[in-house]
Amino acid sequence: MDKNQTFDMQSPKNVINFDGLYGDTQGKYSAEYVFLELIATRSQSFDWNIKPHIHSHLFQVFIIKKGSLTFQDEIQKHLIEAPCVILIPPTLLHGLVYSPDIDGCILTLSDSIIEDIFKTSSLIWKTFEQIRILSHFDEVFPFEKLLNVLKNIEDELFNDYAERFLMLRSCITQFFICLHRLTKHEEAEQSGSAMMTHFRKFQQNIKNAEYPKSIPAFADELNITPVHLNRICKAVSGKSAIELVHQNLISEAQKYLLHTSYSVSEISFLLKFEYPNYFAKLFKKYVGMSPNEFRRFDRK
């Protein structure tokens, strides 16, 4: 695949719109439409280049098992590697350029099926209001689990079992709930990653800070609010932001007490405490003894 290949994004007046599958100009909308096909079946005939288009009433889920593709939404391109899942709701513009070694399939179904299953008032429905590119698979949400549910859909779709439409609806429900859970799992992972990034940066800033320095000032450096900073600190360490700042200052004070002959007042001054008495009180709160007691205890 040519990574420099570009999409010809149409103006709103010229957006390609298909009632059925891509390239099918005779396709008619059906409220019970469900279709599953290999990506190569249709895409190969278009030289692996699916131009930007929309489906007014169709949900599509692209399941990529092997290979790569460039996916473009209304704003930007995404270079995507397998394994991944792309969920595209109706009316959202999308285009794709596949690598010839692509292996995967596309599940297409009418929006009325999803609306009927989850209803527009459901919290789950919000997951399906925007394009989702899901690629974070792990032991909690393995890619194979999704493939197994998809296999059940395929089995019901292409066999003439008793009550197949009822079972097919059940399998589709299970599949989309899995997509919803995977979406929430990825959001939690991304949130956790951002949280740890902020926490590590805060720890660095504590060590390199020029004191006195307020918690709002630390928060400003991270472009977050003091409340958010406290929540991060509590979630990661079980301590508030100010407690972590104090712990660092007390740790520095202990080094001075152990390795220098500075008086408690001098150490208080070096650590930018305004009042030595407050420093001594804070030290005792965290260490359990006064600075002088700590120094004498260590030298015994």
From TrEMBL:
InterPro entries: AraC-bd, Cupin_HpaA-like_N, Homeodomain-like_sf, HTH_AraC, RmlC_Cupin_sf
Example of a GO MF term: DNA-binding transcription factor activity
SMART domains in the record: HTH_ARAC
Keywords assigned: DNA-binding, Transcription, Transcription regulation
Keyword presence, DNA damage: no
Residues in the signal sequence: none
UniProt keyword Transcription regulation present: yes
Residues annotated as domain HTH araC/xylS-type: 196-297
Protein name: AraC family transcriptional activator of pobA
Natural source organism: Arcicella aurantiaca
